[in-house]
Amino acid sequence: MKKFPIAVQPYTVREALSRDYVGTLEKIAAIGYEGIELGPPPEGMTVAEQKELLNRLNLQVVGAHASFDNLDVDFGRLIDYLHQVGGRYVAVSMKFESREDALRKAERFNRIGQQCRDGGTTFLYHNHDWEFAQYDGEYVLDLLLRETDPELVKLELDTYWVAKGGEDPVAFLSKLQDRCPLLHIKDMEAGEERFFAEIGEGVLDFRDIANAAAEVGTEWLIVEQDACRRDPLDSLAISYRNLSELGLNRKNAG
Fold first, then answer.
1. In 3D, which of 120, 119, 6, 24 has the Cα closest to residue 62?
2. What are the two backbone dihedrals, phi and then psi, of residue 5, each rounded to the nearest 5 degrees?
3. What InterPro entries does the database record attribute to this sequence (predicted)?
4. What are 134's strand-pairing partners?
5. What is the per-residue pLDDT for 1?
6. Angle CA 139–144–148, to nearest 5
7. How many helices (H) and strands (E) does the chain have?
8. Which of 183, 203, 205, 185 shows the shortest CA–CA distance to 193?
9. Residue 93: what pLDDT?
10. Which residues have C-beta within 8 Å of that of residue 90, sequence separation ≥ 6?
11. Helix (H, G, I), strand (E, B), or coil: what is residue 84?
């Protein structure tokens, strides 16, 4: 079974990060995570200082999320930032009002994807569950995949949101050959609420998910948990431990 480098999306610990940026990153590194999706540093910290901190913690910047439901972003500036810190991926998430809106945004994704490629980075679309709404019998996410250039626009598929949208994450991931370099992994509690769960504590089969990810060329598994029933840092530690116990973590696999 393929073992992956494991990164974290710090949206999971957004409140702690806003209170204590350095201390929270130190705690993430102490858990064992190798990588992080991270944008420019907070006010009062330079990129050079941020890079020095990340180097000290052995945390590799994998990429950055540019925006949620907004494409009026200075992508050139973000690309420059990623070059400084060694990241390669630029991700966005959007909402869609209609089939025509999805088509317009797919065209925009191609243009942004070309800008990212010209700048030595890769543009990713990160899904939620609303991309499994259908227009003319077709999922929005399938429409986006069909209408975008696979060389310019790739996915950062999210396992929880695929399941919440009513599809099997393994089956959907298996369609994404060479198109899903980063995989957001989060689990789902059993029961009607289908609340977020730590990896290995819910109903999703991460060995099967990891096998599918290996087949399609995924490079990093990235832990994210939008909401937690315990301290989010404890949730991140549980997910990391369980990934190691499942034999999926290249750093701490037994």
1. 6
2. -70, 145
3. IolE/XylAMocC-like (IPR050312), Xyl_isomerase-like_sf (IPR036237), Xyl_isomerase-like_TIM-brl (IPR013022)
4. 139
5. 84
6. 155
7. 10, 12
8. 203
9. 98
10. 63, 64, 66, 75, 78, 79, 82, 112, 116, 121, 122, 123, 124
11. helix
CATH fold of 6-245 reads TIM Barrel (3.20.20)
- pTM exceeds cut of 0.90: yes
Q: Which residue has the tokens 């500036």?
A: 77
Distance of alpha carbon 185 from alpha carbon 240, whole angstroms:
11
Written as six digits, the tokens of 251 are 């750093």
Identify the H or E element spanning 66: strand 60-68
CA atoms within 13 A on the CB side of 150: 10
Burial of 97 (0-12, 13-18, 19+ CB in 10 A): exposed
C-alpha 223/C-alpha 185 separation (Å) is 5
- Compute CA distances 36 → 128, 163, 184, 249, whole Å: 20, 24, 12, 15
Give the total residue count for the chain. Answer: 254
Q: What residue spans of the chain are helical by DSSP H?
A: 14-19, 21-31, 47-57, 75-85, 99-118, 140-147, 159-164, 169-173, 206-216, 232-245
Torsion of CA 173, 176, 181, 183, to 10 degrees: -20
Q: For the chain, which residues make up each domain, given as ranges? A: 6-245
Task: Render each residue's pLDDT in the chain as its tens digit; 254 residues.
Answer: 899 999 999 999 999 999 999 999 999 999 999 999 999 999 999 999 999 999 999 999 999 999 999 999 999 999 999 999 999 999 999 999 999 999 999 999 999 999 999 999 999 999 999 999 999 999 999 999 999 999 999 999 999 999 999 999 999 999 999 999 999 999 999 999 999 999 999 999 999 999 999 999 999 999 999 999 999 999 999 999 999 999 999 987 54
| 68 three-state secondary structure | strand
